[in-house]
Write a structure and sequence with these properties.
five-stranded antiparallel β-sheet; elongated; transmembrane; hydrolase; transmembrane helix; Glycosyltr_51/Transpeptidase; membrane
């Protein structure tokens, strides 16, 4: 069926240019200004020509969708205006007909401005001594909506919506010009995608889903007339209120108009009017707090995605612009999390949600930087009412603890500094030494206590006397010998380890850490190798993943794909002018492959694995890991003074995982030795479960030159 009125289908009435000018003059009288000559004809013509070009390209804000890794299941959405752009061919003809009947019955006859409507408005306004009738065509209404939606400043929004005669006449001029550039079908398609229908429904797709839980293609005449009737006054004619009297009357008016225009037969209209308005309301989710309950733990992943997005220059010059793009840009975002690995990570956490100690794990993929799992023993929720008081004695009496509910980014990717990572930091000076040409066999007779000649007499000691004696990188790393690594740090300079950690993605988020890492003080930061700096599981998993990838560091990446509203991959342009997809891995070689392989050979010692070339010295700090994982594995334990926090970072050729346990509210609330095994088990069991059924891959041994 044609959407044009039957009485005029195929013979739209052309308007003479003189008639249009006359209509504008009448409009000037109907909406008084000081004088028509005050419009500034030349300036107006120039401005409208520019705006017309913009309006032909302008698209309304559109909802962005966040998908699970299958690319089909929606985890949540991000929007300011819930809208999904829909082609006219995907809309029921009834909604097209109903909107013409409700808002502009002469739509297919005029050229953007309807002189008859202007005359009617003039008469009505003259009688009321004010502006009681508007004479806006669908095209003029679309112009107003497009100007509002494309506004970038409050002033532009005001100019697009203010009730003035000057705005009305500019609107007419733009409508006339726009109809020379766009067809009637294009205009009505854009109109139906821009109009507000109430209940946060912007555009016909959202309106169809929110009010009737269906797509626009399936709308019936009754439903179409109901929705078309809302545009005039979404609040007054809202059918979701307890009293549907006004909504029904408005719907019936639209059905009558559809009959008068030949869209519906009298019998069909009478039958439709006899039906009650039957709603099937849907409340579309918005943002991470609306993640479905069955995917509650993915709320933390959603938050990480948002924090990552806000740091990407591809989406704007600053955080505000980037988040605006997320909520208005109509992106399709597919997470890179592996559901199997995520399930394993959640299952293998060693502390419950009721523990004040946060136990979390992040799994990263070497060679891509894609985050494959993020799990923490917390419930993702904004409701902190049932949380106990914070364990931090310096917190106020009304400050809640972070458990069992929180949305804090405890795993990294946000603005929290993290947790002291202990001896897991020994990897950085060792890797720097290897990359500088020092061999794995570099030996030192490590005493129980070592007084540094470089770090102003600082005298650290080992955790036990059993660590004393002649050590190499293999045995020193396997037993976590503090004095060996302070000595090694002296040989290469503390700055080498610090700068390498930065190249591997670590950031200094506390005033103390930033001060120690500054050019003025970094050479004296001897305690760096003992892990006194804060770090996050996300950073540590990604840094160790670079070692598993033969020294190739890849930025942490929460997504596997991002698509624009037109279905094309989202791209950005690098500083060198190269166009790349935003979701593609961003990798660079940080250390030589041989240095990374040598570090891995030493890192097999803490796990109870057997290195390819050297000796671990008889014992190690996490010798159960190799047996649990059941395949070659490397890693490092880490504890801080009085075991205030405990860590383990482990990796195979396929995956790297970092786990911690600590009190985020109060770092002085010691975890204790009894819980230091929890991160070790979490990583080992997660790697085991994640790789179950996959072929066993071997680490590449280091060369003879670097073994020494």
């Amino acid at each position: 069926m044609s959407n044009r009125p039957l009485a005029t289908a195929g013979r739209a009435i052309p308007l003479l240019r003189a008639g249009l000018i006359a209509g504008i003059v009448i409009a000037a009288v109907a909406y008084p200004v000081v004088a028509f000559t005050g419009l500034g004809a030349k300036a107006t013509a120039h401005a409208t020509e520019h705006k017309t070009r913009l309006l032909t390209k302008a698209l309304p804000a559109e909802t962005s969708y966040l998908y699970l890794p299958d690319g089909k299941t929606v985890l949540t959405m991000f929007y300011e205006e819930y809208r999904q752009y829909t082609k006219l061919s995907d809309m029921s003809p009834y909604i097209q007909q109903a909107i013409v009947a409700a808002e502009d019955s002469r739509f297919y006859q005029h050229h953007g401005v309807d002189p008859k409507g202007v005359v009617r408005a003039f008469v009505a306004n003259a009688r009321s001594s004010g502006v009681s009738q508007g004479a806006s065509t669908l095209t003029m209404q679309y112009v107003r909506m497009a100007l509002r939606d494309s506004a970038t400043t409050p002033k532009e929004v005001q100019e697009a919506t203010q009730q003035t005669s000057l705005r009305k006449i500019k609107e007419m001029r733009l409508a006339l010009d726009l109809e020379k550039e766009l067809s009637k079908e294009e205009i009505i398609e854009r109109y139906l995608n821009s109009a507000y229908f109430g209940h946060r429904a912007y555009g016909i797709y959202a309106a169809s889903e929110i009010f009737f839980s269906k797509t626009p293609k399936d709308l019936t005449p009754v439903e179409a007339a109901t929705l078309a009737g809302l545009v005039k006054s979404p609040s007054q004619y809202d059918p979701a209120t307890s009293d549907q009297k006004d909504a029904t009357a408005r719907r019936n008016y639209v059905l009558d108009r559809m009959t008068q225009l030949g869209y519906l037969s009298p019998d069909a209209a009478a039958s439709a009017k006899a039906e009650p308005i039957r709603l099937k309301l849907t409340d579309p989710p918005n943002d991470c707090a609306a993640v479905p309950k069955k995917y509650n733990s993915w709320g933390f992943i959603c938050d990480y995605l948002k924090n990552w997005w806000s740091a990407q220059p591809a989406f704007g010059a600053n955080r505000l612009e980037r988040m605006d793009k997320l909520r208005r840009g109509g992106y399709r975002i597919v997470l890179g999390i592996d559901p199997k690995i995520q399930e394993a990570a959640e299952k293998n956490l060693g502390a419950g949600t009721g523990s004040p100690f946060a136990n979390g794990i992040v799994v990263s993929e070497p060679g891509t930087g894609r985050v494959k799992a993020m799990a923490v023993n917390r419930t993702y929720s904004l409701d902190l009412n049932e949380n106990p008081q914070s364990s931090n004695p310096e917190a106020g009496p009304n400050v809640k603890a972070n458990y069992p509910n929180t949305v804090a980014p405890l795993l990294g990717g946000g603005d929290l500094p993290g947790y002291q990572a202990g001896s897991t930091f020994k990897m950085f000076p060792m890797l720097a030494a290897l990359n500088a040409g020092m061999p794995l066999s570099t030996s030192f007779n490590a005493p129980y206590r070592y007084q540094s000649k470089v770090f102003d007499g600082w005298a650290p000691s080992n955790a036990s006397g059993a660590m004393s004696g002649l050590q190499t990188m293999w045995s020193g790393f396997g037993k976590s010998v503090n004095t060996y690594f302070v000595w090694l740090e002296e040989q290469i300079g503390a700055e080498a380890g610090v700068r390498l950690a930065e190249q591997l993605g670590l950031r200094w988020r506390t005033d103390v850490d930033r001060d120690q890492a500054s050019p003025e003080k970094v050479k004296k930061w001897g305690a760096f190798t003992l892990g006194v700096s804060d770090a996050t599981p996300l950073e540590m998993a990604n840094a160790y993943a670079a070692i598993a990838a033969d020294g190739r560091y890849c930025e942490a990446m929460p997504v596997q794909a991002i698509y624009n509203r037109d279905g094309t991959p989202t791209t950005y342009t690098t500083a060198s002018g190269i166009t790349r997809e935003v979701a593609k891995p961003r990798c660079r070689q940080v250390v030589s492959a041989d240095a990374a392989r040598a570090a891995t050979d030493a890192a097999r010692c803490p796990t109870g694995d057997t290195p390819a070339r050297g000796s671990c010295g008889g014992w190690s700090t996490a010798d159960s890991v190799r047996g649990t994982v059941g395949r070659p594995v490397a890693g490092k334990t880490g504890t801080t003074d009085s075991t205030r926090s405990a860590w383990f970072v482990g990796y195979t050729p396929e995956l790297a995982a970092a786990s911690f346990i600590s009190d985020p509210d109060n770092p002085f609330n010691a975890v204790g030795d009894g819980q230091s095994q929890i991160p070790i088990s979490a990583v080992a069991e997660t790697l085991r479960d994640a790789l179950k059924g996959k072929p066993t891959r071997q680490f590449t041994p280091p060369s003879d030159a670097i073994v020494g």
